[in-house]
Amino acid sequence: MSHSTLFQGQAPIAISYRPKTPDYLPVVVAAIRRFLGDWPIVLLTEARHLPPQAWLDAWRIATITDWAHSHNANKVLRLWEHQAVFAAHFERWIWWHDDMLLLREVHDPVAEFAVARVRQLPRPRPNKKLSNWHGWLWNTLDFFDSLSVPAPNPVCHIPRLIERRVLRSLPANWNRQRLLFEPTYLLWHWHQTGNAVQRVGEFRQCVFSGEMPPLAQFETSSSTILNWGRKIDHGSTQRAFAARYALGFDGVPG
């Protein structure tokens, strides 16, 4: 399925994908189709990780497999490289993860996912030992603070509109092996455009560990996105999702 005929200038939902166990990509895609209809979706993955072709065709999902990471790219640089691949294909895209579940209809996804939502307003760096990821995050926030650029924490784990022209306007000498992509892109873009940030609030719900409540509990809230962490109970999560969606790659729209 060619990108030019599928997308027709729309900003596709772009998902970087590697298989997981259990794999919730079918649920994430089914929710997008339920609430956004035929909005274009593209998977960036390796050919060996492609879901079954019958499933891709049934759910109208395009794929990008003609790419590779640079030699010895670390986890931080790899996220930048994913965005560079998307930029080679699209003028703008909605960066989505395979653990972000849409809970309701969104009238204008481009506008909705361009809103400058943040997790926390600027605050001091925690005085404790940080995990690798949180260390990278705070190094990124500290970098912007050193430039006298406001540095709230924008990592909310929600879909984000990414634009090629903004991505390519980032200074070339910034260290993409140390600066996390999402906060770097967003803080730079918001600073350049003067966007006023707002707390993410009830826009998203998170279950980081333990039992997953029934989806009906989230769908009757004002939230738009549900995401989850690695320590969730997968049995209850699969039961909650199966009440609404097919769990496997044999499910079809309908």
Structural summary, described in words:
- It is a single chain.
- The mean pLDDT is 95.
- Strands 3-2-1-4-7 form a 5-stranded mixed sheet.
- It has 10 helices and 10 strands.
- It has one domain: Spore Coat Polysaccharide Biosynthesis Protein SpsA, Chain A (Alpha-Beta Complex), CATH 3.90.550.
- It is globular, with a radius of gyration of 18 Å.
- 35% of the residues lie in helices and 17% in strands.
- The protein has helices spanning 3-7, 25-36, 53-58, 75-89, 109-112, 132-146, 164-167, 181-193, 215-219, 234-242; strands spanning 13-16, 41-44, 61-64, 92-96, 100-102, 117-118, 160-163, 198-199, 204-210, 225-232.
- With 254 residues, the chain is α/β, with parallel strands linked by helices.
- Helix 6 (132-146) runs parallel beside helix 8 (181-193).
Which helices and strands appear, and what pairs or packs with what?
Blueprint: H1 3-7, E1 13-16, H2 25-36, E2 41-44, H3 53-58, E3 61-64, H4 75-89, E4 92-96, E5 100-102, H5 109-112, E6 117-118, H6 132-146, E7 160-163, H7 164-167, H8 181-193, E8 198-199, E9 204-210, H9 215-219, E10 225-232, H10 234-242
Parallel strand pairs: 1-2, 1-4, 2-3, 6-8, 9-10
Antiparallel strand pairs: 4-7, 5-10
Helix pairs in contact: 6-8
